[in-house]
Design a protein that fits this description.
The protein is 53% helix and 16% strand. With 382 residues, it is an alpha+beta fold. It has three domains: 114 residues, Acyl-CoA dehydrogenase/oxidase, N-terminal domain (Butyryl-Coa Dehydrogenase, subunit A, domain 1), CATH 1.10.540; 105 residues, Butyryl-CoA Dehydrogenase, subunit A, domain 2; 144 residues, Up-down Bundle (Butyryl-CoA Dehydrogenase, subunit A, domain 3). Strand 1 and strand 2 form a beta hairpin. The structure holds flavin-adenine dinucleotide (FAD). Belongs to the acyl-CoA dehydrogenase family.
């Protein structure tokens, strides 16, 4: 394990890496995407997790060594996400959330908490969710208002979380709450809240693309003292460390979607007849695709560098993660937009692959810190 709780990546072999990425892309397209399309998102989460576990990918995001659990190599997670999102953006989300929500338990949880939850989450038997955002507090997460008040030996949670991925299918919510009457990040603790806790209710929210997401109301939800993850009032730091690991992966997933849109577009413009030749004969089209190719390569270099920096516990890892997420998600949006443009009307037809990618890629510039938040982080070193 590395200093930050992730697993060191294996020595790099380019041929092996390409074969691995290709196998994951095929698995995502042939197995996972059909599951995603077979029903509504909350119902398909379980079957997708079962397939991801069988294929061995859950062992790579949440490896287990005897009784010790870690988060997989951040670099490897980026590569997996890039390949998964190429074949199935929905599968990328299902895969990632199990690791993202587990980070707090891996890095700060008690032995009992890990034993109870990490094995089922790792094997897909339980679904985990990460509950930070609230109706009144998103980007400025340190201002969160859901309260945790001591009651006897335990705590009572009161308030609302929203935009929570997996809300409907979650068995457990890693919930960030204000446990001390101190403003800002200093008063925040992390709690493990089982979804069947009395007083906890979920309201689904429909998004632009099929994403399992919802609002979670905590109406005096009582949890025992053992629900506290790590030290009291250290929860915000844990939430931010989670983003150091997983933000580069958002960039990687966005680039996976963009690569798919790009490949579809190259095929399309080479065969689409217009003006006595093909669209590819037009310099304006070729240059736009060349720009997209540069963005794809540059984005992946930044993403992989951020993954490496995390895995080597570099002091630059937060900056690198913000840089990678910012560049890769902004570039991916431009590339998918160009893909729609060069498909013409067909690119806007409901059900066309670039149409669905256009809707899917949009959220990556907002979740885990909007682009402007990444720019704030990047600008701190200037
Ligand atoms: C698909 C999806 C999945 C999500 N999953 C989860 C989840 O599992 N768990 C969870 O806790 N949350 C989740 N979220 C919530 C997400 O993290 C928030 O949406 C995000 O942090 C932004 O918060 P907000 O939506 O409240 O926007 P606001 O904070 O209201 O910001 C609105 C906009 O203002 C701009 N802005 C914000 N800050 C700055 C700044 N400092 N400078 C300049 N401009 C700024 C940005 O353009 C931003 O998009 C998810 C969101 C989406 C879309």
């Amino acid at each position: 394990m590395t200093d930050l709780g992730t697993t060191a990546p294996a020595a790099f072999d380019l041929e092996q890496h390409r074969a691995d990425a290709e196998a994951i892309r095929r698995f995502a397209a042939d197995v996972l995407e059909p599951i995603a399309e077979s029903g509504d998102a909350p119902q398909t989460t379980g079957p997708m997790l079962a397939a991801l576990t069988e294929f061995g990918l859950m062992d790579r995001i949440l490896p287990r060594n005897g009784q010790t659990y870690s988060i997989g190599s951040a670099l490897d997670i980026c590569r997996i996400r890039n390949a998964l999102a190429y074949g199935s953006p929905a599968a990328d989300s299902v895969f990632t959330m199990q690791g993202l929500a587990s980070f707090a338990l891996v890095s700060a949880g008690s032995d009992d908490q890990r034993r109870r939850w990490l094995e089922p989450v790792r094997t897909g038997a339980a679904v985990a969710a990460f509950a930070l955002t609230e109706p009144d507090v998103g980007s400025d997460a340190a201002a969160l208002g859901l309260t945790a008040t001591r009651q006897g030996d335990g705590w009572v949670l009161r308030g609302t979380k929203t935009w929570i991925t997996n809300a409907q299918s979650a068995d457990v919510f890693i919930t960030f709450a204000r446990s001390a009457d101190v403003p800002g990040s200093k008063g925040v603790s992390a709690f493990l809240v089982p979804a069947d806790s009395p007083g906890l209710t979920v309201t689904p929210i429909e998004m632009i693309s099929p994403h399992p997401i919802g609002r979670v109301d905590f109406a005096d939800v009582a949890v025992p003292a053992t629900a506290l993850i790590g030290e009291p009032e250290r929860g915000f730091a844990t939430a931010m460390k989670t983003f150091d690991v997983f933000r580069p992966g958002v960039g990687a997933a966005a680039l996976g979607m963009a690569q798919r849109a790009f490949d579809e577009t190259v095929e399309r413009v080479k065969t689409r007849k217009a003006f006595g030749g093909t669209l590819f004969d037009k310099q304006a089209v070729r240059h736009a695709l060349a720009r997209a190719a540069v963005d794809l390569e540059a984005g992946m270099l930044l993403v992989e560098e951020a993954g490496r920096k995390y895995d080597s516990a570099s002091p630059d890892r937060t900056q690198a993660a913000a840089t990678a997420k910012y560049f890769a998600t902004e570039a991916a949006q431009r590339i998918v937009d160009a893909a729609v443009q060069f498909h013409g009307a067909q690119g806007l037809a409901r059900g066309h692959v670039v149409e669905s990618l256009y809707r899917e890629v949009r959220a990556t510039r907002i979740y885990e810190g909007a682009s402007e938040v990444q720019l704030d982080i990047i600008s701190r070193r200037l």
